[in-house]
Every structure is written in structure tokens, then in C-alpha cells.
Amino acid sequence: MTYKELSEKIFQAGKGIFDNMETYIEQDKEIEIAVFNGEIDRYNISETEGLSLRGTTNGKMGYSYTEKLDESSIDMLIEEAQENGKYVDTMDKEIIYEGSREYKKLNNFNPKLKEIPLEDKIEFLKSLEREAYGLDSRIVSVSYCVYNEMENSRYLYNTKGLSLEDNKNLAFSYLQVVAREGEDTKTGISYRIIKDFSELDYKIMAKEAVGEAISRLGGKPVKSGDYPVIIRNDVFAEILSAFSSVLYADSVQKGLSLLEGKINEKIANSKFTLIDDPFIEEGFNTCSFDGEGTATKVKKIIDKGILKTYLYNWKSALKDGVESTGNGFRSSYKSSVTTSTINLYVEKGERSLDELMEMLGNGLMITEVQGLHSGLNPISGDFSLSAQGYLIENGEISRPVNLITIAGNFFEALKDIEEIGNDFRFASNGVGSPSIMIKKLSIAGE
User: Fold this and answer.
1) Please, are residues 121 and 33 in contact by the beta-carbon 8 Å criterion?
2) What integer pLDDT is reported at residue 58 of this predicted model?
3) Which tens digit of pLDDT belongs to each residue from 36-62?
4) Structural domain includes residue 69
5) Residue 95 φ then ψ, to 5°
6) Residues 198 and 231 placed together within one structural domain of the fold
7) pLDDT digits (tens, 9 = 90+) for 256-285
8) Are strands 417-420 and 436-444 parallel, antiparallel or unpaired?
9) Which positions ≥6 away from 16 have C-beta within 8 Å?
């Protein structure tokens, strides 16, 4: 039985109980390979599939889900969704969406990726580890040498005639090395997010990770004070991701975002443009529809410093009397619909990282932060994060810096941006950014 046929049987069984119904089905397959000391350390293949049912009765939404995708689950799904809906006490209306006028056609699945022989993927990892050890005698360990390949398929059907599906795949490779000199130990990483296996180059990745680890040896704090800083591309992407909930309409509606009432106001430097693009090729989450069946679209959330929109699902959109922006998502088929960015990124500028350092003159470049979950407050925008990086003197890297804490306010930092680099890349969390130069942050060190 096809997923669509199963969905039709569910809809038939739910007639008279629900006003409208929707099934959301997800299939995931993941391959994980890791090597350690030239041998396969881990090789896992996991496959999951599940179906969730949503049904509305008098504007109240009931949910249920199952991992057993056959007719034996139908009665349970109907009963649990009905029961679940009875206890919804929110006044907020939820709907089953009839569908958008058109959906962008995407070619988001590369069959060649899965056709690459397993032996080639293992050999790539072994070469990557071997190369890392061979580049410098101070590399004492390769902590992680991993290749992950992910496939995802989604199917959405509803009683309003909507029938959607999409498929995507990508691979992720990650290397972490440990360098030691005397008592000093430092790590360095390199990663790649790819849809074409030929884009993986073990020599370049090893050189990046080893170069970073070696360059961090001998790091020490700087004196406490306010410093102009460059936040490297991947680090700014991590910080931006941690604050992304302030962009969600439901956060604004609940009083959990300082962006309330700021639409069409200047909230950042005019060089700063923030985009949510569901179609960008390098994106983790490229898709033509969201978890409610709404067509996705490119949105400039902040355009040249001006806040242009919040991100909406249908529940928050109906509350504000607007259309959904196509940002209603589920973290899995088991989850209710929430709000999420798709491929969030900062538009790149025109300056290279070297030019940013030259403009900075004297200050710090931050290349790693820790404590993102405990050291920041998305509501107030305040953050205090342990960090490391490099001291910049006369426009050049002078020495490594560690054991410092950077502190500031995210919303103030957006206004204090002085320049934006052109070294754009997506971080491993799926958010993208170039390096960002900020007028000053408070540094706690010596």
C-alpha cells in the first residue's frame, strides 16, 4: 500500500470525527562511518519512518503519530488525535492548510552520492586521518574522523486535496585533531557539507584542521578591556543560530523577543542583510514546502539593517492576521508544528578576511566560542561566552589567544557592525555567515 493510499484510509476512518485531517510522513536514512588509527571504528546504518496525523475539530488541533505504517495503526491514530484535541486549551486557532498556488521545483537529491562505493568513503577517511598525522609531528591524536550521509523524504497529504512530497540527501565530513607541544594541548577542526562526493579533498581538510591546531599552541589571555573584534564566519553563524528564536512571530507574540514592534525600523548596521532562503544550493534544509504544506519562499528578514518581517507558521500568522511565511516545521514526525528558519544566512560583503584584519588594525579575531546554551539570553540579547582566537596587531595575526570571555549584547552588536567579509560559508549547524567586524566587545582576560 502506498503512503497516499494509507492516508486516504485514515481520512475515511476519521470522517465525522474531524472537520479536516492531514498526514505527514517522514523517511530518514543515515550512514555513519568513523575511522580511528587506520581502522573502521564505527559503521552504522539507521533507517526510520513514521507518520503523524493532525485533525481539527472546531478550530482545535489534535495530534497523534505512529512508526507502524499500515492499516493496523488507523484506529489508534484516530482515537489518540481525537483524545489529544480534547485537552487543547489554547484560544489560538490552528488550521489544515489547503495549499499554495505553486511550489518551486527543486532537484535536491543527488543519486550519485549514494552510488559511490562504500570502499571509496572508507578510503577517503583513512587518507584524511593519515594525512593529518603526516603533516606535523605535534599532532598526537585524531579525535574524530567521520563521514555521515543523510537521506530524507517527506510526504504530506490532507483532506483539502493537498498532495506533496520531496526528497533530499547530503553528506557531512568532520575532522578534529589534537596538537601538543610540551604541556600545551590544542584542537583544530575542518568540516565539509557536500552533495557531490568529488568535492571532498582530504589534503585540504587535513591542512585546515592541522593548521588551526598548530596555530593555537602557545595561546594566552589578553588584558581585560573593550576590544574591536572580528568574529569569524563559522562563529558568527553559531551565535546567530542561538539567537534565531527572536525572529519567530510566536516569540514576539509571547513577549519573548525584543524585536516586538520593530518592523520597518533600523535594528542593525545598513551593511547587514539577513536572509532565509529555502532554495540556496549549499543549504542544509533546502525545500519547496514547510511542515504545514505552505510553499517556501526567499525572505529578507533584515534588509540593509531594516527589520522587514517575522517568521510565521499558520498558527502565529492567523493571530497577527497575515499569511504564513512558510516557516512552520516539525523537528520530526513525532513533533507538533513550531517555527524554524530554513537556510538562514548573512549576505556576504566585499572585503576579504585579510582586508578586515587590515581595517581592524589592533584587536581580536574570535575563532571559537563555548557555552552557547548557558552563556546567552535570547530574550535580553546578553551573552557571555568563553572564547579563543588571535590577537591582531598592525593588521596581522600576532599570536594565539585563549582563556578569555567575550561579553556583549547581540542587538547592540548588530548596530556596532563596521564591516562584513566575503568569506561566506555555512557552519555545521546549517546557518551561514561571512566574518563580521564589530566596533567593540568586552573581553575578560588577565
Assistant:
1) yes
2) 82
3) 999 999 999 999 999 999 999 887 899
4) yes
5) -130, 160
6) no
7) 999 999 999 999 999 999 999 999 988 889
8) antiparallel
9) none
Give the residue with greater pLDDT, 428 vs 342. Answer: 342
* Phi, psi dihedral angles at 44 (to 5 degrees): -125, 140
Amino acid of residue 371: G
pLDDT at 150: 96
Cell digits of residue 94: 490552528
Please state, in angstroms and rounded to a whole number, the distance separating the CA atoms of residues 368 and 236: 9
pTM (2 d.p.)? 0.95
- 123 and 235 housed in the same domain: no
CB 290 within 8 A of CB 311: no
| Percent of the chain scoring above 70 in pLDDT | 100
The answer to whether residues 236 and 159 belong to one domain is: no
Short-list 343, 346, 354, 305, CA closest to 433: 346
| Angle at alpha carbon of residue 306, lines to 411 and 256, rounded to 5° | 45
Q: Please answer whether residues 214 and 138 qualify as being in contact, where contact means their C-beta atoms are separated by less than 8 angstroms.
A: yes
Assigned domain for 262 exists: no
Q: Is residue 208 located within the same domain as residue 225?
A: no
Q: What is the pLDDT of residues 73-100, one digit of tens each?
A: 999 999 999 998 887 767 788 899 999 9
Alpha-carbon distances of 90 from 248, 250, 307, 315, 328, rounded to whole Å: 19, 13, 29, 11, 18
Task: Please check whether residues 32 and 163 belong to one and the same domain.
Answer: yes
Q: Which helix (H) or strand (E) holds 410?
A: helix 410-415
Pairing, β 436-444 against β 396-409: antiparallel
The CA–CA distances, whole Å, from 264 to 300, 313, 341 equal 12, 20, 20
User: What's the domain range around 415?
Assistant: 219-240+349-444
Q: What is the pLDDT of residue 143?
A: 97
Q: Is 22 left (phi over 0), alpha (psi -120 to 50) or beta?
A: beta
192/230 same-domain check: no
| Secondary structure (3-state) at 377 | coil
Please indicate, yes or no, if residue 357 is contained in any of the structural domains: yes
DSSP 8-state class, residue 294: P
Q: What is the mean pLDDT of residues 361-369?
A: 97
Is the residue at 290 inside a domain?
Answer: no
Cα 329 from Cα 409, distance rounded (Å): 28
Contact present, 178 and 141 (Cβ < 8 Å): yes
Claim to verify: residue 224 and residue 193 sit in the same structural domain: no
Question: CA–CA separation, 158 vs 162, rounded Å?
Answer: 5
